[in-house]
Write a structure and sequence with these properties.
The structure holds 2 protein chains of 2 kinds.
Chain A (H helix, E strand, L loop, with lengths): L6 E3 L20 H5 L3 E4 L8 E4 L18 E6 L3 E4 L1 H4 L7 E8 L8 E7 L3 E5 L5 E3 L1 H4 L7 E7 L8 E6 L11 E2 L5 E2 L12 E5 L5 E3 L12 E7 L8 E6 L5 E5 L5 E3 L1 H4 L15 E4 L8 E4 L8 E5 L5 E3 L1 H4 L10 E7 L8 E6 L11 E6 L2 E4 L11 E7 L8 E6 L5 E5 L7 E5 L7 E6 L2 E7 L14 E4 L5 E7 L5 E5 L6 E3 L5
Parallel strand pairs in A: 31-37
Antiparallel strand pairs in A: 1-30, 2-3, 3-4, 4-5, 6-7, 7-8, 8-9, 10-11, 11-14, 12-13, 14-15, 16-17, 17-18, 18-19, 20-21, 21-22, 22-23, 24-25, 25-26, 26-27, 28-29, 29-30, 31-34, 32-33, 32-35, 35-36
Chain B lengths: L31 H19 L4 H17 L3 H14 L5 H12 L3 H14 L4 H13 L3 H14 L4 H13 L3 H14 L7 H10 L3 H10 L10 H8 L3 H14 L3 H14 L4 H14 L2 H14 L4 H13 L3 H14 L4 H13 L3 H14 L4 H13 L3 H14 L4 H13 L8 H14 L3 H13 L3 H18 L5 H13 L8
């Protein structure tokens, strides 16, 4: 198969006619350049992934297009045909400038809920289970009012309820939009260093439909220009930690102290800055077992002139920048990259990378990239992604057509989205596990004659986007022997004799 | 540099093909001085071409144009200009060298390698080119070749910090931690300002298992890197003209504490654009640092004439007015700063302190509260109101402030001390909590161990009815007070000691 056929955009023919609007008027408001993501989520529990698109707005004085742009929800019908159900859903995300989306079942009712980050007040929407959502921002107390981008649902205290980490960005205001200049002396967009970074927010789910802001109590104190965020167990102690990609500042690695508090040890852990000690413009982030040694490694995307960075985990939560040695750095310097994820596009048992990019200085459009993992060495697959260069930001990942490989929904700034259907993966054996959104659960797929595959149930990571919570593991041509589920509460369950080539459904057993 | 043999110059490609056409950039939006500079350089080239000037003159004109484009970050325009310069003067090493820089920055590693090698063929003794070639080879995952080249640089210039730093990186990439330590320690000894090197050095110590040493270096890590002494790149930086260039250079000088140089650059920025508010504010700040307060005040006042709503100018002017005793005027400027930017925590804090000092405690408390909300990590925003409330005999509120402060700054000795003290000896006995006071007092004593800290432990013990132990601690406190001096406080402490020695009840104030 020619590389150009690996991912094919079918957005237009599948009814995904969403076009992002960034409201740019020439005033160079910072949020215009930073947007935006979206989500792949099965909001109606019909077994296939639906799509939510985050929308921008007009900032400052200016005429807004009619109708006013708004975030949109599309239902995926059986035949990969999407229908705009925004009006019916009750999702009315107007009023803020949309940045990102996070998904998780906050009330354990079996229906996925939706959290939207904004420049402006964030919003929490509860899924009513009948195709509609209710805005529960006020009731849950999760409406951080300034500027947030990334957010991650995870169970910080193993009580069975999803808590929420929100990565807040910088203290920008339209009213006080400063003038910034490029090296040429021409006026340009400001960068994160031109504004005070914001403290982040941690909300603990009380289990009664409300959340408590435990940020200070949890020790989450220092501010940082946060963008991408991912929750995973960095040191494999059974407690979920949080990694935050800060833009132009050292990253945070909040290690869970198992008592409701967290301690940032990213510097000593070797995951705050690159090997040279330089903080980089952290945008998107993903964590996964790229080298098949049972722990999760961090990959981060960055600005043009910086490499993307791969931090390899030694299994104890200590990381080492191995970007150059693994091939992750090569080919990344010309790109300003955002959405990304470890996923096994060809089901060979090794986690590959998709990266969407778009500059923040003219010229903006860039091409998306696919890196194939060849036994722990990343190699760019030239021409793998269809479509002209565009301004890539968020990316959500999931098996949209349930055919056993991972597709990608890419969100482009001020342009149409693309639904990139994977044309290659399902030719190899795979297994799928649907744990009913038990975020943080780890799935260990044991194979004969090959290392176990460790995958985690998560929707977070990438950039401002939420992905399919189902685990899809390519078996790499090996025979699957057992599947072990390591539930977030510590329970381990083992399954034998499972069929391949289909999703195994198991409700949340926390 | 005889040790660097041309035999190592593999895959050399000469500039034999026709040079690319110039790509003049748009001058729209550039500062007038910058646009004029670029136009003049281009006009000179055009004139020389018209009169069929000799190749060396044409080369210089192309090269100068390229350098100007390069200096102003117009890389796409600079590259063809350098290529044309090289075509006209193929023996001039500067043009491939500059081109190499552009290619390296853009991540075009193969092209950068070719250009640097070409430059080195022409000028083998130019060390910066060898160092950059080493960087390029390392970035391309060719550490052996990088090492060979950089070791030859060291043979010629043993103290070259830049070469040492890259060799440290090579060693880290191979996990040769002892060697990494050696190179990086040497680099730091040669370039102690290059505090960024503390990070890779910390990683090397971590690799050796010396976590304490790693943490020590992480605490020193900053953002200043190291680069080879490079007259050609220095020349490039000096080409920049106009307000922005001077501002940039001034800010760099300011950051490194070269305030007189900074003031000189900012003054040039003012001369380039007399109505530039940033130039005047920066000049005012630099003059303040050089001790020229009168000049600084004048610059801030000028800035406010141009932009009456500039909060920074109001704030900075207020600070100077306070120092000169013009409190009423200072209050007005701080109030203006807050009106303009209500979230300016520093302005709230300064105003609170000023209001307190000038006998308006109620108004001061309002601004302290705002400051604490906006600057939760600033001790002064908490201790100011806590001390004020104690002086106003509003102990319960003081305790609330200190509790909140402790929640935000649990590691602050000052806050912990204040809280322990109030819990041990608040004039309102209902507010006391001897056990908690003792916990906190012991914690702060173990961290700082001053006479006052020992005295607080004694107070807490006394509050808990443990008079003998209180007496023992108080004796230690008295001894420490004698050591620390001055002895003014000793008589009062001895009086307390007598009370403790008398036995129960020995509660403070009891």
């Amino acid at each position: 198969m020619a590389a150009a056929d690996l991912f094919v955009d079918v957005a237009a023919q599948s009814g995904l006619d969403f076009v992002h609007f960034n409201g740019a008027t020439g005033e160079l408001y910072f949020p215009e350049m930073m947007g935006q993501g979206g989500a792949l989520l099965d909001y109606d529990n019909d077994g296939d992934l639906d799509a939510y698109f985050v929308q921008g707005a007009m900032l400052g004085p200016g005429k807004s297009p009619v109708p006013v742009p708004r975030g949109r929800l599309y239902r995926n019908d059986v035949s990969l045909h999407f229908v705009d159900v925004t009006e019916k859903s009750g999702l009315d995300a107007r009023g803020g400038y949309g940045m990102g989306a996070a998904t998780g079942d906050i009330d354990n009712d079996g229906w996925v809920d939706l959290y939207l980050t904004n420049y402006g007040s964030n919003r929490m929407y509860r899924n009513n289970g009948d195709g509609t959502f209710t805005d529960v921002t006020q009731r849950t107390g999760t409406g951080y009012p300034r500027w947030s981008v990334g957010a991650a649902f995870f169970d910080m205290d193993r009580d069975g309820w999803l808590d929420l980490y929100v990565a807040n960005y910088v203290d920008f205001s339209v009213e006080k939009n400063p003038k910034c200049y490029a090296a040429s002396s021409r006026r340009d967009y400001c960068g994160p260093a031109d504004f005070p970074p914001q403290p982040h927010t941690l909300y603990r789910n009380r289990g009664d439909g409300t959340f408590e802001d435990v940020t200070a109590r949890a020790g989450i104190r220092q501010p940082g220009p946060g963008l991408g965020v991912i929750a995973f167990d960095a040191d494999r102690d059974g407690w979920t930690d949080v990694y935050v990609a800060n833009d132009g500042a050292p990253a945070f690695l909040w290690m869970n102290q198992k008592d409701g508090t967290f301690r940032d040890d990213a510097l000593l852990a070797g995951a705050a800055v690159n090997r040279r000690g330089q903080p980089e413009a952290g945008m998107g982030v993903t964590a996964g077992d790229f080298d098949a040694d049972g722990d999760e490694d961090i990959f981060r995307t960055h600005l043009t002139g910086e490499t993307n960075t791969l931090y390899v985990n030694d299994g104890t939560g200590l990381f080492e920048d191995r970007s150059t040695e693994t091939g992750a750095a090569q080919g990344s310097l010309p790109f300003t990259s955002f959405g990304t994820r470890w996923f096994d596009y060809d089901n060979d048992g090794w986690l590959d990378l998709f990266i969407t990019s778009g500059a923040v200085r003219l010229p903006l459009p860039q091409t998306d990239q696919l890196y194939r993992n060849v036994g722990g060495r990343l190699e760019e697959v030239a021409g793998a992604v269809s479509g002209a260069p565009a301004v890539g930001r968020g990316a959500a990942f999931g098996d949209v057509d349930n055919d056993g490989d991972t597709d990608v929904l890419v969100f482009y700034n001020n342009g149409p989205a693309r639904l990139l259907m994977n044309q290659a993966g399902n030719r190899r054996p795979w297994t799928g596990v649907d744990l009913g959104g038990a975020l943080g659960a780890r799935v260990e797929v044991r194979r004969s004659g090959a290392p176990a595959l460790w995958r985690r149930v998560h929707t977070d990571g990438s950039y401002a986007s939420a992905s399919d919570p189902r685990v899809l593991a390519g078996l790499g041509g090996k025979e699957m022997t057992t599947v072990r589920i390591h539930w977030p509460g510590g329970k381990v369950e083992e399954w034998r004799g499972l069929p391949t080539g289909r999703y195994i459904l198991r409700g949340n057993q926390q | 540099m005889k040790t660097l043999s041309l035999l190592s110059l593999v895959s050399f490609l000469s500039f034999q093909s026709l040079p690319p056409a110039l790509q003049p950039p748009s001058l729209e939006g550039l500062e007038p001085e910058v646009a004029a500079q670029l136009r003049d350089a281009r006009a000179l080239l055009d004139a020389l071409q018209t009169e069929a000037a000799p190749p060396e003159e044409l080369a210089d004109a192309y090269g100068e144009l390229g350098r100007l484009y390069h200096a102003y970050g117009l890389a796409e325009a600079a590259a063809p200009a350098y290529a044309n310069a090289a075509a006209q003067a193929p023996k001039d090493f500067r043009w491939p060298y500059y081109l190499g820089h552009l290619e390296q920055a853009a991540g075009r590693l193969a092209e950068a390698e070719t250009s640097y090698r070409k430059a080195l063929e022409l000028q083998p003794g130019f060390l910066p080119a060898w160092v950059h070639l080493g960087e390029v080879l390392l970035a391309g995952n060719r550490p052996d070749e990088a090492e060979r080249i950089l070791k030859e640089v060291l043979a010629s210039s043993p103290k070259d910090a830049a070469a040492r730093a890259v060799l440290g990186e090579v060693a880290l990439s191979r996990r040769q931690y002892r060697e990494a330590v050696e190179h990086l320690e040497t680099a730091l000894a040669a370039a102690p300002d290059a505090d960024r090197l503390h990070h890779p050095l910390a990683m090397a110590y971590r690799g050796l298992g010396d976590v304490d040493k790693a943490r020590e270096h992480l605490s020193k890590a900053g953002r200043v890197g190291v680069r080879p002494a490079d007259p050609l790149m220095d020349e490039l930086a000096q080409l920049r003209q106009g307000e922005m260039a001077h501002l940039l250079r001034g800010r760099v000088a300011f950051r490194f504490g070269r305030f007189a140089d900074a003031a000189a650059e900012f003054r040039k920025a003012v001369e380039a654009r007399p109505d530039s508010v940033p130039a005047r504010i920066n000049l005012g700040a630099a003059l303040t640092q050089t001790g020229d307060r009168k000049g600084a005040v004048s610059q801030f006042q000028e800035a406010l004439k141009i932009a009456p709503d500039n909060g920074t100018a109001h704030f900075n002017l207020a600070l100077l007015l306070v120092q000169d005793g013009y409190d009423t005027e200072a209050v007005k400027h701080l109030e203006e700063a807050i009106r303009i930017e209500p979230r300016d925590g520093a302005a709230h804090l300064e105003l609170a302190q000023l209001l307190e000092r000038t006998g308006r405690p109620a108004a001061a408390l309002i601004h302290y509260e705002k400051a604490a909300g906006l600057l939760p990590q600033d001790e002064r925003a908490w201790m100011g109101p806590a001390n004020l409330l104690v002086r106003m005999e509003r102990y319960r509120e003081a305790l609330e402030v200190l509790e909140a402060a402790h929640g935000n700054l649990p590691a602050s000795g000052r806050v912990t001390y204040g809280l322990a003290r109030l819990l041990a000896a608040a004039p309102d006995p209902a507010l006391r909590n001897g056990k908690r006071a003792l916990d906190l007092a012991l914690k702060v004593h173990s961290a700082r161990g001053t006479a006052a800290d020992a005295e607080t432990v004694a107070l807490a013990l006394a509050e808990s009815g443990r008079c003998d132990e209180a007496a023992e601690w108080q004796r230690n406190a008295v001894e420490a007070a004698h050591r620390e001096g001055p002895p003014d406080r000793v008589p009062a402490m001895e009086k307390e000691l007598t009370r403790y020695e008398t036995g129960a009840p020995c509660r403070p104030g009891g």
